Amino acid sequence: MFLTQFLCRYACLQKSFAVSGFGGAISKPPEPCWIYCLRRVPVCCGKCFSTKIVLGIETSCDDTAAAVVDEAGNILGEALHSQSAVHLKTGGIIPSVAQQLHQENIARVVQEALAVSRVSADGLSAIATTVKPGLALSLGVGLAYSLELVEKCKKPFIPIHHMEAHALTVRLTNRVDFPFLVLLLSGGHCILAVAQGVSDFLLLGQTLDIAPGDMLDKVARRLSLRKHPECSGLSGGKAIERLAQQGNRWRYEFKVPMEQHHNCNFSFAGLQSQVTRAIAEKEKEEGRQEGQLLSCIPDLAAAVQHTVTAHIVARTHRAIHFCRRKGILPQRKATLVASGGVASNQYIRKALQVLTDATDFALVCPPPRLCTDNGVMIAWNGIERLCAGLGVLYSTEGIRYEPKALLGTDISEEVQKASIKMPDQIRCEK
């Protein structure tokens, strides 16, 4: 009866956030690096001890990022150029603009990360770069630059799956052993998977249309939140999260998507349509033109955020039941990792904490700054692969970027066949 309890007992979750000032990440405190890395003993080479050091390069979407990380989990240097200010002005990411900005900044960003780390290109063990999935024009810039650098420095190349990097980032900061359940929430993806090992994932479900971050951005644009005095410079998702703290989610009722579908897939397009209709009706009621700020924005934001959260929690709850039924995860004290840009939303994290408390799971999240796209996660994924001896290329002939790519082995049909029915949701009054 978890969802019933969640919807009833946490109907005023928005208000409790505003009162308590909740803002910390829900995660186990990171253990000291030396504890986690005792099993990563440096490799002895003659009389000298060598440490694996990887340069990571990320250009999958609208951030140009690079970082240098060693096998002990030390972030030796990092740099990032964000394009968010440019794309906020245009109302969304224009691929050709993102490509141009990557081209203009990638050399500087990489050199800055190396300079801060005080590691020369010759001192690197390998170069890791995002090659899938993402915007084709953006991926192309990162890959082209990386291949030139690999050729120049004569270093191994490690192609990285962007979502695998998000999933494994938590192992940089926390002691998380395989297997674990991972929920990846971002502007371009929404995925539930089981991480069985480095580069070994079972895909339980994914979004069938748009991702939650994309939906929240579109709702924010429809509400013209960039004109709101409290939302200047904020992304759509962040703007909705901030305004939702002031709103009453019960003022609007949106249907939680896919309640009758017994799988772990997600869908947010229908919810976006519901919200768009509600906005149009409210504009008509208040006699306002599209683009003018409505009086009920905080309430709409709260209702949208709550419905998105309820959908995410419901699918994650089913994934927990499926994994335990199939023996994929431990029956007790298993781990749920939540990562990706949208996973830094504190309302979503609070709801996931309620779920994991009720199901004897531990919720672990990377620090918020490592939830969004960054070079550290790419470099760390490179370290994980280098230590495991997986996907390390000494010849880059034929390497290509892939705008679309599944994460691991797709077993979503098995989840569907299991037809795990969750408790009915009960609508609770305020």
Question: Would you write up a description of this structure?
Answer:
It is a single chain. The chain is α/β, with parallel strands linked by helices and 430 residues long. The chain is built from 16 helices and 13 strands. The chain has helices at 2-9, 13-20, 33-36, 84-90, 95-117, 136-153, 162-168, 170-173, 212-222, 236-244, 269-286, 297-326, 346-358, 368-371, 375-388, 412-418; strands spanning 43-45, 48-50, 53-58, 63-70, 75-82, 126-132, 157-161, 180-185, 190-197, 200-206, 334-339, 361-364, 409-410. The strands form three sheets. It has a six-stranded mixed sheet with strand order 12-11-8-9-10-13, sandwiched between helices. Helix 10 crosses helix 12 (297-326). Residues 7-49 and 425-430 have low confidence and may be disordered.
**Fraction of residues in β-strands:** 15-25%
- Determine the mean pLDDT: 88
Helix content: 40-55%
Order of helices and strands: HHHEEEEEHHEHEHHEEEHHHHEHEHHEH
Structural shape: globular
Task: Tell me which oligomeric state these chains represent.
Answer: single chain
Low-pLDDT stretches are 7-49, 425-430
Give the helix tally: 16
Task: Give the N-terminus to C-terminus distance in angstroms.
Answer: 19 Å
* Total beta-strand segments: 13
> Which sequence of strands runs across the widest sheet?
12-11-8-9-10-13
User: What profile does the largest beta sheet have?
Assistant: 6 strands, mixed
Q: Output the radius of gyration.
A: 22 Å
Structural class: alpha/beta
